Amino acid sequence: MSEAVSYEVVSDEAGDIAVISIDNPPVNAASHAVRQGLADATSKFAEGSANVAVLVGKGRTFIAGADIREFGKPMQAPGLGDVIDAIENLDKPVVCAIHGTALGGGLETALSCHYRVAVKSARVGLPEVLLGLLPGAGGTQRLPRLTGIETAAEIITSGRHVPAPEALKLGIIDAVDDGDDPLTAGLTFARRVLSENMPVRRTRELEEKVLAARGNQALFDELRAGVKRKAKGQLSPQLCLEAVIASAELPFAEGLKRERELFMELMASPQREALIHVFFADRQVGKVPELETGTPRPLDRAAVIGGGTMGSGITVSMLFAGMPVTMIERDEESAACGRQNVERILDDGVRRGKFDQAHRDRLANDLYSVSSDISALADADIVIEAAFENMEVKKDLFQQIDQHAKNGAVLASNTSYLNINEIASVTGRPQDVLGLHFFSPAHVMRLLEIVVADRTDPDVAATGFALAKKLKKVGVRAGVCDGFIGNRILERYLSQAAYMVEDGTSPYDIDKAVLSFGYPMGPNQMGDLAGLDIGYANRKRKREEGWEGRYAADYMDRLAELGRHGQKTGRGFYIYEDGSRVGKPDPEVLEIISQVRSEKGITPVALDEETIMRRYMAAMINEGARIVEEGIALRPLDVDITMLYGYGFPRWRGGPLKYADMIGLDKVLADIREFEKDDPVFWKPAQLLVDLVERGENFDSLNKSANR
Ligand code: T1G
Description:
By secondary structure, this protein is an alpha/beta fold. It folds into 4 domains: 5-267, Alpha-Beta Complex (2-enoyl-CoA Hydratase, Chain A, domain 1); 299-478, Rossmann fold, CATH 3.40.50; 485-505 and 606-708, N-(1-d-carboxylethyl)-l-norvaline Dehydrogenase, domain 2, CATH 1.10.1040.50; 521-604, N-(1-d-carboxylethyl)-l-norvaline Dehydrogenase, domain 2. The strands form 4 sheets. An 8-stranded mixed β-sheet has the order 12-11-10-13-14-15-16-17, with helices on both faces. It has a 6-stranded mixed β-sheet with strand order 1-2-3-4-6-9, sandwiched between helices. The chain has a 3-stranded mixed β-sheet with strand order 5-7-8. Helix 5 (149-158) runs antiparallel to helix 10 (236-249) and helix 9 (217-231) runs antiparallel to helix 10. The two termini are 32 Å apart. The protein binds (2S,3S)-3-hydroxy-2-methylbutanoyl-COA. (2S,3S)-3-hydroxy-2-methylbutanoyl-COA binds at residues 26-27, 29, 64-69, 80, 101, 103-105, 108, 127-128, 131, 133, 135-137, 139, 283.
């Protein structure tokens, strides 16, 4: 028996019960050692004296899936599917005792057992779709046999975790145990199997629920339409559904073959490689030096300065995390507005069914207060300034905060691009100052850029990461520069988009190209959503400070000056009729743009979709490389995570730098060299990119060396 799986027999008055325990920390992933151990234990049980077996995981969870680290490497026999079939083929019953999260191959193993019991806190699921895969060990064939096609399709194409009580209702498990020890739960159920002489019940033989859907093309087409709409270009949800449909259309053995074919197709897809990159990047991004050297400070109470869009969103995200918050505004009237902003968000949560009125009232009445007196921040462990984006305003505020905040309090600015070193310099405690850049709406967007200034104490940076975890956000460490990571990259590809429009490409073609790449919306649709007047004001301010490089936003200025501010005025790049949020292209806009081109003596040359995206992505990748080169981002994966969680980059493409690796850095550099001929300033290649190509390395090699 491998050390990953142990076998023992427990004798009691009910009879001999075999206990097969899996011990492969941290999540009992079904590694080769586990699979081999399970195969050996199954044979031992078959030949042994025990009449029933309990399969259980040690540590924090039952099997949480196949070992993702083995993907992409030659699979060592026995495969999980073979082990699972051997369990199901036994002629003595096996009871699976579930705790923690039985996911992917873990749930598939449980489905091959003849009975399943779970502790109440357990969750089950088939999240392979999130990795760009599908349940490849019989899950798409066995789950429908327990729940029916529609429920199985929803669970498999969403990848969601199903809490044990719901799993019981759906027929995925047979009992929920009130205790929290899976072995006790398993033994109790095993004794029942013996005393009631419960038969071997093979999931694959339960045909009723799949036969009910056999031939129901209308159902299959309806499911296909729904999954395709939600998938937004991602392959795995669609092939997951085809495998589930096969469970209704084909006998079990052929359904299994179909599942295998579809699984291998996904395993070979670039989307799987990208999504698994994101799985590990999600877990690496929180590993920063300051969490080695620093200790997070307490985060029991917070104060938020400012009750506008950002201040109220930040306040609510803290309320959702159960943190008592005091929101402070400059006077009573503004404080009242801030309160309205917070309560509007809370009421919206009730309307959307996120929580009930009682919960909303608790958040509003117990956890949160509003004041117009800055001394109200005196007992806060963390103070987050979310005031107007102006350096003088922020410096003045930080001087006041410095006077009132308690010793050891963490002082953060939510600025989206201003210099944290400069803000810290006006306080007597620059070591306690950092940037916490939330993204709007702050109670929804998961990205939090944690900006570590020159003198920020490691404890303070570590506190930023602890806050991200507490708020269920994805914290990314950023250095100090204009725009940190995300906005600095955004500025580059939006500039490139503006150049392409001014040079002759329709803004509607750019949006279409970006949408078909997998973004939820194109840059001009995004501009209409954010408000073209906002961009206009920002550009005006930057021109007053001295605009660097080509100015290609005259057409946008023209639109803003004509009052076409986007969705909020019903017209921007698009026309929004009777309050619809889906706009229609407007020939008048194209007229305005061609007018600007002729005023600037530009002979328009329109680009095709492929060229649009080559330019759009090259601008993003080049700036991302510079950000890594300058150490503003710790690793390339930090840039990927930022663009995934803050800017809508399609997850199944892995992030801009993973995407660059997958198309080949030599190709990206060749594109940049080609574009550089037109505009050597904008297209100066990042030195890191040049070096990586010369060394025959890629961004992922940097991720790996950084994580050693
Ligand atoms: N394989 C290998 N390592 C894994 C792993 C896995 N399946 N799951 C987690 N880890 C590592 C993770 O990288 C981290 O490592 C540590 O465990 C703790 O994880 C055939 C093909 C189980 C809910 O998709 O959802 O089965 O960073 O930080 O927040 O059909 O991990 O410490 O070095 O996430 O408590 C399907 C993926 C696989 C589940 C726990 N299963 N894992 O969350 O801890 S494909 C999944 C999770 C499959 C079959 C198919 C979560 C978790 P390190 P963590 P957590």
